Amino acid sequence: MADSFLILAQVAGAPSGMMNIVFIIGLFAIMYFVMIRPQQKQLKAHRELVAGLKKGDEVVTQGGLIGRIQVVSEREVTLEVANGVRIRVLKSSVAGRYATAGETAPAAKTEEKKEEK
Fold first, then answer.
1. Does the pTM of the predicted model rise above 0.85?
2. Above pLDDT 70, what percent of the chain?
3. DSSP secondary structure code for residue 55 in this structure
4. Any idea what DSSP says for residue 99?
């Protein structure tokens, strides 16, 4: 009985080196499309958001502070979080625009326009 397992192992053979290479390349391709590419898209969208900040925009920071932009400089923005209360934060810490209950988020507006066409 032990001889039959040896025969089967010899007939089936180990996977060739080419199959191993194809498997590794396929694994990297899956990782690229699942992990790296979405992260690059998200980074690009954040850069566009930071570049498009202007006075009067209502934004939320990564820390959860919500405020209206008063001053925009090269690296910082000044947010008014309450009447007369202003704070300076780095532009990179702005997580996104803040949409109030009556408004639709800017991303949703563009998606609706695409669907209408």
1. no
2. 73
3. T
4. P
